[in-house]
Amino acid sequence: MNLQYFLLLPLLLFSATAVVSQNIVRTLPGFSGELPFKLETGYVSVGDIEFFYYFVESQSNPGADPLILYINGGPGCSGLNGFVYQVGPVAFNITDYTGGLPTLLLYPHSWTKTANIIFLDAPVGTGFSYATTTQAYTTSDTLSAIQTTGFLKNWLNDHPDFKSNPFFLGTDSYSGILAPIIAQEIIDGNEVGEEPHINLKGYLIGCPHTDTTLEKNSRIPYAHRMALISDSLYEAAKTSCNGRYVDVEPSNAKCVEAIESILLCIEQISLQNILEPNCAFLTPKQNKEIRRSLQENSRSFLLPSQHTTGDAWCRNFEYLLSDIWTNYKSVQEALYVRPGTVKEFFRCNISLSYTVNVNNVVGYHKNLTNSGLQVLVFSGDHDMVIPHVGIEQWIKSLNISIDKDWRPWYVDGQVAGYTRKYTNNGYRLTYSTIKGAGHSPPEYKRRECYEMFYRWIHYYPL
């Protein structure tokens, strides 16, 4: 699959004279002492956009270890989400938070133990990334993919020591739709001699958004497998809907009735993780109200332990700590954020001027099976946003050979999930589930995800 239509985009996106600013961060408010890892923050210009990034050098061998560009989902979730909640070297202390400035703890199972990682605020309007013109805030799936590629090229031009490192693209959730598009764009650019040459070796996609219709459709068989709906109800829907549960014709009364009954069964289930409380999404206004109370040391908003029984605990309240922390002036100064460029930081900006114009990238994945890349696809088995059954279905549609069939993989002698490996003329795809994890598996099973990543990135079997 080619991306010729992207040639219509402004060539300024890949300006060789793009401005890159970078700063070394030695201490962070809320963290005790100097950081025991090298953290760089900065901005990279891509046209009229100033992309903000966090870069952590590998704590092992930065000159030889892989370089990863890590993009969170949303669209609109900051790279800070990956840095703090998923695969980065620190985590918020949530066990004894009483208000005010949140504190940070060193996290032992960071992917930066064995890889150099750029955590990017993308697309424009995410985190601390901003545009210098109003028009530049408008973007889409295809445009975001091109802009991200432009960021990478300009970043590498400013960091020539990492040009020869093996490069991998890492994405989470919604940004899974961008991963194969960016990979194809990199390959196409390398083939025509674009500089810098990107040493692309593969990509890893967690709970990846890939095919909108397939993902929504797979929720019903997944709900049946997880005993959320009865055998009879599932069979009624399967028969009357002919296996298609989205965009149902209103004239198909039996199918509509079955779907309505199923929705009544699962409407109070958390799609993020079917075992956790179903928490309402906090709006920016709610975030602001709760954040103000927490900053003022109010004990009425204490964050209960994840192991609290009942409905007191909600993962969304843990996310609030990032909004509180990043809106402190001292934190923004420590991160070298440009004053006045972003009025207020949100972990996930839900008000982007963003157009969804790609709903299916299975064709890109199919085309890339001839690329010789190494690919890791992983999913939490309690995720009903992007159910694993749908992921397994589109992987099967690639028609590539099974090299190692379904088997458990282990951490500390315990089953951490299940895996299967596929090959196609040098192309290798490893699929893995993470047992007990929900949407964005590293947020639930950081140790297991680190072990999975370490083995895969160093070409060991899971």
TrEMBL record:
Q: Which SUPFAM superfamilies match?
A: alpha/beta-Hydrolases
What are this entry's molecular-function GO terms?
acyltransferase activity, transferring groups other than amino-acyl groups; serine-type carboxypeptidase activity
Gene3D superfamilies membership: 3.40.50.12670, alpha/beta hydrolase
Which Pfam families does this one have? Peptidase_S10
Q: Which UniProt keywords apply?
A: Signal
InterPro entries recorded: AB_hydrolase_fold, Peptidase_S10
Signal peptide positions are 1-21
Which branch of life, at top level? Eukaryota
GO terms, biological process = proteolysis; secondary metabolic process
Record has rRNA-binding as a keyword: no
Family listed: Belongs to the peptidase S10 family.
Sorted alphabetically, which PANTHER family does this protein's record hold? SERINE CARBOXYPEPTIDASE-LIKE 18, SERINE PROTEASE FAMILY S10 SERINE CARBOXYPEPTIDASE
What is the recorded name of this protein?
Serine carboxypeptidase-like 18
